[in-house]
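User: two proteins, same treatment. go.

Assistant:
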Amino acid sequence: MEQAEFEHIATRIRQRAVATALAFAASGDEAEDIAQETMLKLWTLRTEIRGLAHAEKLASCIAHNRAIDCTRRRRTISLDAGRSIIDGKPRPRNGRPREHGLARRTPCLAAVNGVPNTAIETS
């Protein structure tokens, strides 16, 4: 495909790339970025493009893959957000360590038995 042909169909292909990116939950700004990256990639491949239908399919494929990449980048979390580094146990949403076993039940046991919390030993 020659430069003049590419310029002639560029608007249509760009719209296709934006629509594809938006279909994969990209925000408006992300969709525009994805479309821009798609057009740059297509420009580098222009000598291999065999017509409008081929260009549209390539644009959709490239935009789809870029949208997936953006989604993956958004899903990354830090180590501290998911697990405690020391014990490897899931960290609760409030950030405090979880109490396990008898330590968690001490206030309930004290209330049932009428004994102060400090009188019940936890191990």
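Protein 2:
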Amino acid sequence: MKITPHNAGTYQVSTQNTGKNPKKELTTEKKSFQDSLVLSAEKDAANIKEANQAIGALQLMNRALKDLDGQLQNMINAHANPQDTQKQIQKTLNTTFNGKRIFDQDFSKLSSNIKLDSTGIKKYAQNISSTQDLYKLSSEIKKERNQASDAITILQNQLNSKLKTDASYDKLDPTKLGNLANAHNTNSLSLNRVSELLA
């Protein structure tokens, strides 16, 4: 009688292990590529959101400046006391959008083409003592309104370029359908072939 060990007949072939799993490496590379796509998409989404919020703030700034300029013109025409404008100017300068004061924001960080300097109004608003100062403030308001409008246009153009879709998605290219027409050629079907397909 022959006695054999319990694991007799079981052979384990050892292979040289390099410590690297090719499947794991492939999934890691794929995952890192997907992660970079996600990060890129998140960055683009954050930039788009920031630009949209800046456009909203600039539109609000433009309206506030328009209202303030109208009130300044009324005060100039009525020969009102220039000191009375301080309250209205402060109210305008404290205008907020999404909890942030719009005249304290630096919109030039969004694009180097934006030349808006919202601190100019603050300088003129602090030194109002005569009707001539009201004219200077009104002139500064008009200048900043133009700069705000230009900034809105610049940001909208940036958004449009980021969100622009490829024209090939808009219409169908008939040259790409050439092989499709051959696939649906009914002349090549025979009764025998149809029977085979239906069976």
